[in-house]
Amino acid sequence: MPKFELAPLPYDFAALEPHIDAQTMQIHHGKHHAAYVNNLNTAADKHPELYEKSAEALIQSLMSVPEDVRVAVRNNAGGHVNHTMFWKLMSAKPGPISTELSAAINSTFTSLDNFKTQFADAAMKRFGSGWAWLVVDGDGLKIISMPNQDNPLMEGFTPILGVDVWEHAYYLKYQNRRADYLAAWWNVVDWAAVSGLYAAATK
Description:
The protein has helices at residues 22-45, 55-60, 67-88, 99-109, 112-125, 171-174, 178-185, 191-202, and strands spanning 130-137, 140-147, 158-164. By secondary structure, the chain is mainly α. The protein folds into 2 domains: 22-88, Helix Hairpins, CATH 1.10.287; 99-202, minor pseudopilin epsh fold (3-Layer(bab) Sandwich).
């Protein structure tokens, strides 16, 4: 069976400058994300049947993963899924939000600005390492945060937007200023990509 692979970034390392610096992107993708993929393969080598499933399928059914590698699969398949999505939701030339997602955000959070405030608040309040997420829950939207490399798929939600608040995502440029990182990050969020995920989750 083919092993899990690290896909190249869909843009140059410096493409998101000045909001996210090239050195952070090189380390984040080439070291951190690569380590999750390597560690996932190491775990799956012990139970090759795991290669028959996607990383998403593995984290959606963790109890079916052999116990001796379950924690490794949770952490590393989660990290692989999270980062694969993260790269695709950012762009040097972000596209517009769809009418459908805009209406859903306005209905749930009253406005896009209010959503951004609540989402950033969830990201700021995530103690230590983790992520903040916008997810589809049934027919509605909600904001959640999760620790480490856990993914909303583990809880039965469909993620459509996520921000990495591990320090490796921002410390080189922003040091301990997580709020500044989050404020800058909105400049590279590709709302067209988020809208595509929303459409797929609600069709």
